Amino acid sequence: MKQKILVAGGTGYIGSHTTVELQNAGYDVIIIDNLSNSNIEVLDGIEHITGIRPKFIELDLKDKEATRKALASQPGIKGIILFAASKAVGESVQKPLLYYRNNITTLINLLELMPEFGIEGIVFSSSCTVYGQPDPENLPVTENAPIKPATSPYGNTKQINEEIIRDTIHAGAPFKSVILRYFNPIGAHPTAEIGELPNGVPQNLIPYLTQTAIGIRKELSVFGDDYNTPDGSCIRDYINIVDLAKAHVTAIDRLLGGKSAKDIEIFNLGTGCGVSVLELINTFEQATGVKVPHKIVARREGDIEQVWANPERANKVLGWKAQETLADTLASAWKWQLKLRERGIM
Ligand code: WQD
């Protein structure tokens, strides 16, 4: 009997890739999503890859009664992976209450409902943004690095949600949790059936870069080359989206297989390699043979200078390690952009 997993936010970028890997691992996936920042066609892409169309319920998880009815209609769910959240750093500064209401209410509703339906575990999508700019002695950053005051409401909702999960479990809630702190997820599924599809002008580097490479954008602005880094541009830990998705399967296996020693565990999901913006552009050009017109402009407010993971705990305790190279990952992002053009989507 396949174990049922609810993927909340499963038509999104990370949710869709995680659904594929869960299905590949033999799980029965149910997706709840309100389609506020994703498209229902993603279900076709998932089905084309795995041959299995996940059960889909269009629903806003802020509506607790509707969520309760949805869970009642799908008996036997054993675990939840929570992706559903607003996630644009810049937008969160403009619309903080939207972010606090959406990201926090969604979590609280699910945590309150889990015991009613015997759901044993929740994997929470967190972010390295909780570390802010780590001090030099804390780079590469481990899970024990200090949590810094959030620099955006988006980042603050991640910190608050981690604390809500911790306090709820410490108060005796009958479930466990694995919190995954992502670094920078990039790339697309190698089939190019699913990938990152931002609405409007991309805020994140990779979609803007591939849209520039294909000619949708005139040139890529590099936000600053006067940082205290080897080439002056910011450093990040770019992690392949399929590697990231596989980490969620490992986390669910751990939660439901009784392997997690503690009631709540936290893991950094990164490659352990820091890469600058200019290095990434060069790697993309080498990997694809496509030039990316770019110019150096002023720093973007709120950007931190450099952060990359020490993934040893995820490697040793979770038993997960990033496999894909940056070059192959960037090539997958390019293949996805070409597929979007082929389909007339952009
Ligand atoms: C990466 C680097 C920019 C765009 C944020 C959130 C994180 C997660 C991912 C949601 C930075 C530079 C970018 C551009 C550029 N959010 N850049 N020109 O800011 O590291 O992380 O998005 O899941 O929680 O904090 O990602 O891709 O926006 O930027 O030079 O047009 O690329 O300055 O150094 P970021 P990003």
Write a structural description.
With 346 residues, the protein is α/β, with parallel strands linked by helices. The chain has a domain of 213 residues: NAD(P)-binding Rossmann-like Domain (Rossmann fold), CATH 3.40.50.720. Helix content is 39%, strand content 17%. It has 11 helices and 13 strands. Strands 3-2-1-4-5-6-11 form a 7-stranded parallel sheet, sandwiched between helices. A two-stranded parallel ribbon has the order 7-10. It has a two-stranded parallel sheet with strand order 8-13. The site of UDP-4-deoxy-4-formamido-beta-L-arabinopyranose has 18 residues, from α7 and β8. UDP-4-deoxy-4-formamido-beta-L-arabinopyranose (WQD) binds next to α7 and β8.
Low confidence ranges: none
- The total beta strand count reads 13
Helix-strand pattern? EHEHEHEHHEHEEHEEEHEEHEHH
Global morphology? globular
From the alpha-carbon coordinates, what is the Rg to the nearest angstrom? 19 Å
Strand order of the largest sheet: 3-2-1-4-5-6-11
Q: For the residues shown, what is the average pLDDT? A: 96
The structure class reads alpha/beta
> In percent, how much strand structure appears in the residues?
15-25%
